[in-house]
Design goal:
Helix content is 60%, strand content 3%. It has helices spanning 9-22, 32-41, 48-58, 68-78, 84-95, 105-115, 122-133, and strands spanning 29-30, 66-67. α1 packs across α4 (68-78) and α2 (32-41) packs across α3 (48-58). The longest helix is centred in the N-terminal third of the chain and has 14 residues, at 9-22. The radius of gyration is 16 Å and the shape is elongated. The N and C termini lie far apart (41 Å). The mean pLDDT is 79. Keywords: Calcium, Cytoplasm, Cytoskeleton, Metal-binding, Repeat. It is found in: Cytoplasm, Cytoskeleton. Plays a fundamental role in microtubule organizing center structure and function. Component of the infraciliary lattice (ICL) and the ciliary basal bodies. This is EF-hand domain-containing protein.
């Protein structure tokens, strides 16, 4: 139940975006493999056993995958208060799919298409990057 989770609507929307980014097959749930992708994007490197333990810990319906509500529970139980700088760093890690410490036009376009369902031109993506760099 969403009422039991102490998050603002903006935080829930942000987590929904992250969830959909890593729900590669778009089936409304995150597999153990996809959960590993999420955690690695956030700078962690869990073992397969640790991933299984996390899924078993929060998989309320026992289907071996994590639905969005379970994902929220995992994030809120593992999260701590972050400074704005830490939040920006975490967001950068999610966008930097190639793990090269650089967010490319391709990565911005992918994110906007996948999460916001907006197809950007190269000029629009470039404008976003220029704004972020300023």
């Amino acid at each position: 139940k969403i009422d039991n989770i102490d998050l603002t609507p903006a935080q829930i929307a942000e987590f929904k975006e992250a969830f959909s980014l890593f729900d590669h097959d778009e089936n409304g749930s995150v597999s153990i493999s996809e959960l590993g992708d999420v955690l690695r994007a956030l700078g962690q490197n869990p073992t397969d056993n640790e991933l299984r333990d996390m899924v078993n810990e929060i998989d309320e319906d026992g289907n071996g995958t994590i639905e969005f509500m379970e994902f929220l529970i995992l994030l809120t139980s593992k999260s701590k208060e972050m400074s704005q700088e830490e939040e920006i760093t975490e967001a950068f890690k999610i966008l930097d799919r190639e793990r090269d410490d650089y967010v490319s036009l391709k990565e911005i376009k992918f994110f906007m298409r996948k999460v916001a369902h907006i197809k950007l031109s190269n000029a629009e993506a470039e404008a976003m990057l220029n704004y972020a760099d300023s």
